[in-house]
Amino acid sequence: MSGPSRSSGGESINFTFDGKALLGRTGDTLAAALLANGIGLVGRSFKYHRPRGIMTAGVEEPNALVTVGTGGRTEPNTRATDVFVYEGLIARSQNRWPSLRFDVGAVIGLFAKALPAGFYYKTFFGSARRWMFYEYFIRRAAGLGAAPVEADPDRFAQRAAFCDVLVVGAGPAGLIAALTAAEAGEQVLLVEQDRVLAPSLLRDQQELDAVWADEVATKIRALGGRILLRSTASGYWDDNLITLTQRQTEPGQEPADGLAQRLWHVRAGRVILAAGAIERPLAFAHNDRPGVMLSQAVRSYIRRFGVLPGQRVVIATNNDDAYLTARALRDAGVQVLAVLDTRPAPAGQASGFPVHNDALPLSTSGARHHLTGVSARINGTTHYWQADLLVTSGGFTPVVHLHMQAGGAALEWDAAAQAFLPGSARQNVTSIGAAASAEPIGPTPAPANPGKAFIDFQNDVTLGDVDLAWAEGYRSVEHLKRYTTLGMATDQGKLSNMAALGRLAEKQGVAIPEAGLTTFRPPYTPVTMGLLAGAKAKDGGAHVRRLALYDVHAAKNPIWQPLGYWFRPRAYPTAGETLAQAALREAKSVRTNVGMTDVSTLAKFEVSGPDAAAFLEIICATSVSKLAVGRGRYTFMLREDGMVFDDGTVWRLAENRYLLTSSTGGADRMATHISYVRQYLCPHLRVSAVNVQEHYAGIAVAGPKAKVVLTALIGEEPPRHMSTIPAMIAGIPVLVLAASYSGERAFEIYIEASRAAPVWAACEEEVIRHSGCLYGMEAMEFLRIEKGHLVVGGEIDGRLTPHDLALDRMLNKAGGFIGASGLSRPALSAPGRRQLVGLEAIEGIIPEGAMLISSKGQSPQGHITAAAFRIIEGGSIALGQLEGGFSHHGEELIATSPTRGQKARVRVVAPHFYDVAGDRYRD
Amino acid sequence: MSLPRIFMTWRGIVIVTDVTITHLPAATLHALEIWSNAPAVAKRFEAATGFALPAMGRSGGSDALRLIRYEPTVWLAEGDVSGLPAILSEDGALTAIGGGIVRVRLSGQGWRSLLMEGGVFDAESLAFGPGCSAATVIDQVNLRLHVESEGCCIAFVPASFSADLMHFWKTAAETLAG
């Protein structure tokens, strides 16, 4: 018998690996269960498709990456060492075809010498189009697991927590630290990524044991502390904010209550890092073969899971810790054939095992993807052992990731341990236990065949690749990392970085600290994107904002249009109508009759106080103070650099009270801007500026019959254009503003939103009575384009000045508004700036978003911001931005959209296609 | 199998084991801003109403009128504000905002834990007790909180987000029961 095994008994959990039905025990990791079932070959490597097994027992595992789950729950690249078996678990190996044992891709390994570091850069050059060709094959040859194509059916949550002390790692050191803090009256949060407390106590027999750990945990909880298992501290941010990734269920498993994972945002007074250390592998030829495992992992499999990873064992080490593994193996009845210790005698000689000093494996051999032998050169003689397990230990790397993410000013170098230790930090963080200390190790000799000595197992980077990068001139550790891709795999170099640094330092002839360090970035272990999106993972991370009249609209079954977070009716099709047909019918009704629409989403601010006009003349680039009570006017706002960033209307409701409206899309930005101006620029003004966007619902009634409709609704003469009056509709107080976005006589009716439904119903009844109809955003877009009105995000894109938009004549000549100084910069009046123009089609239909060019092959001179059709006469029209646009009226251009495969010949005209004089606004 | 702690219907009151979420009827709400002579206004206010203007992060008042301070110079006024213009005189203004705000009462032992879901604010802190208020974010929605009593908190939610946020709370509460 050879290879991994476990005495049967207690297996009760059914799972599959590559379709084969297997049994596991409660508490098994997938890795443990696979080894228990005699499975040592688990995956194929990323680049060369080399057979790989299980190397570790923790989250640092580089080799045993599998895909678990099915459908939308599929989770690729899951470490077999970091998923616990559950009933029905389905696991599959990755990056192999047609099977794991017989993988055609393994032929790539035969050409490994031709595929060294930087292979892509040296081979795949030329035009971008050629790269697209190469990529097709590269994607199929190299890779990890495939992402699921179905939506994840489960939910993800996010939660805040606050504590005095956060302890990361519930090993013995972490438990004692947490208990000490709790007993001192501090509020404690203790997190552990494993599913059990103090997993190291299950691995190593000590004075403390699991019972002790449970007793400590009970005390911590009794003192008000909170303990989270299966929770990884994945990121350490400013102000002692730590993000925890908590698994509510195992990867691929259906959660009992639908919740798969929870992201904790923890604000801690101080943080204690007890995250332990990661064992390092040794570098020698074929050190990646299944059956080569790290020493502490072997102890874990033996003592925690009852698994024997091998029967005939060679141990290679440079430290004392591996002798604990030798004893564990011996206690389990396994034959330790040899201990290869890199240290000189008498290291290990008293252990009772066959120890060879100054020794390092030369290579390994295998058959059928199992380890069959280990060779080593000792005192000039090559030795060979028939073995099925090679245990290695190259020392320990304290886990300093979170310390460095916290802004660790520096790491301290422990030369004896050949390890970095956490030094001082900018935040209130302390490292303890194995995360803050390391035992001395012996020398780590260079292997004889560096080209086959892997250091980054996930990305197939060897010591030979590091040597090649050095030979080709890559001196910086950051350049070396990117050229070789070392440390850039999903394990982020947990096992490989120190080996690479050591090799680089050796080449440079300096100590390791002088070779430099790469940056420790979150997350510590991979985090699923859904968790970052949280509860709204399926809605693009955002809530849907509902109109106050949502139910009223929904009853009419409109086509909905997302607009920012809002959902607004795009059109109200009648039976059989398409969107375009419905929108054109609605727009024609407004042009010839009357229509009504919901404009509740417009930004609205009520500005009150003796200094209200002065305040508005700082916000708005047009004059306000001369506005009479009951009158309104169009206005626009500038950024400090002089660019137009929003527009709207301002109305004087009373002597010291104004209503300012602006765009829906810019509403939040405008609210921030107004708050900034009020609180920072004008705290001295006697003014109150309140966001009333949601307080008022808005209804627009537009068309030649709008005045008649309003007269019937309010029982009096409606206000003239750009005037406002208070009125009553359906017994409810409303504010009527005579303003038009459509080019027709029009009114906006504002009502307290919670009372809007009866007003809407009254308006609708009257509109219908006059043969009008409801209209949605699509018709509104047609109407405003034909009239030449601007929209934020289209024509107003933050790059145009008032002059560019032909608004300069409206500027407040007294100045003093935000952006006035910026506007005086000469560059903003330089010739050739993009300016607003209209475009009408000579041939073809103008595609929205198209580029404007003078002839084929020329650089774009502008673009189409919005396109529509003349509502009554027909014909394709558009608004756009064009370099020096005002001076190009009458010229012909090409509007071309390569992405849509559409183009049209167009003529540049003024940006008004309808009622240029504005006669239709007025009675 | 544990039962969900919460059941809820839109615009209704639902009693659950640990948290009750009640969608309160529309109320008269105003933003009260004082821009000048704050000490004098405060004296006038206390003399007229019988209680002091609440400090930052605090709320106070009576059954007829309650004020929640959510900016240095701004209070949310709930209830009868008919007497306030005279108190404010030329030193401040009242602006109606109630049409855009939905009031939600979270009551029962579970309200603090529920507010930690999707939150950024330490609602579990016992210092956040009756009479305290906060302006914070829950699942990316700006809202204001007022602790009415040890077992009850009122959330003032933007109306457009209220349906989604109520759904979020319902779902979150079910998860907490797990």
Radius of gyration of chain A: 36 Å
The Cα radius of gyration of chain B reads 17 Å
Question: Order of strands across the widest beta sheet of chain B?
Answer: 1-7-10-9-8
| Biggest beta sheet attributes of chain A | 7 strands, mixed
* Biggest beta sheet attributes of chain B: 5 strands, antiparallel
Helical residue percent band of chain B: 10-25%
In a nutshell, what does this entry contain?
The complex is a heterodimer of chains A (923) and B (178). Chain A is of the alpha+beta class and 923 residues long. Helix content of chain A is 22%, strand content 29%.
Q: What's the helix and strand layout?
A:
The complex is a heterodimer of chains A (923) and B (178).
Chain A: E1 13-17, E2 20-24, H1 30-36, E3 43-44, E4 51-52, E5 65-68, E6 75-79, E7 89-92, H2 107-110, H3 119-123, H4 128-141, E8 155-168, H5 172-183, E9 188-191, H6 199-203, H7 210-222, E10 226-228, E11 231-237, E12 241-247, E13 259-273, E14 277-279, E15 292-294, H8 295-303, E16 312-317, H9 321-331, E17 335-341, E18 355-356, E19 361-367, E20 370-378, E21 381-386, E22 389-393, E23 396-398, H10 401-405, E24 411-414, E25 419-422, E26 429-431, E27 454-456, E28 461-462, H11 463-471, H12 477-484, H13 497-508, H14 512-515, H15 529-533, H16 550-554, E29 559-563, E30 566-571, H17 579-592, E31 595-598, E32 603-608, H18 612-619, E33 632-638, E34 644-654, E35 657-662, H19 667-681, E36 688-691, E37 696-702, H20 706-714, E38 724-729, E39 732-737, E40 746-752, H21 756-769, E41 773-774, H22 777-787, H23 820-823, E42 834-843, E43 851-853, E44 862-869, E45 876-883, E46 892-897, E47 902-909
Parallel strand pairs in A: 1-7, 8-9, 8-13, 9-10, 13-26, 15-22, 16-17, 16-22, 17-18, 31-41
Antiparallel strand pairs in A: 1-2, 3-4, 5-6, 5-7, 11-12, 12-13, 14-23, 19-20, 20-21, 24-25, 27-28, 29-30, 31-37, 32-35, 32-36, 33-34, 34-35, 37-40, 38-39, 39-40, 42-45, 42-47, 43-44, 43-46, 44-45, 46-47
Chain B: E1 20-23, E2 29-34, H1 38-49, E3 59-61, E4 65-71, E5 74-79, H2 84-88, E6 92-96, E7 101-107, H3 111-116, E8 133-138, E9 141-149, E10 152-158, H4 159-176
Antiparallel strand pairs in B: 1-7, 2-5, 2-6, 3-4, 4-5, 7-10, 8-9, 9-10
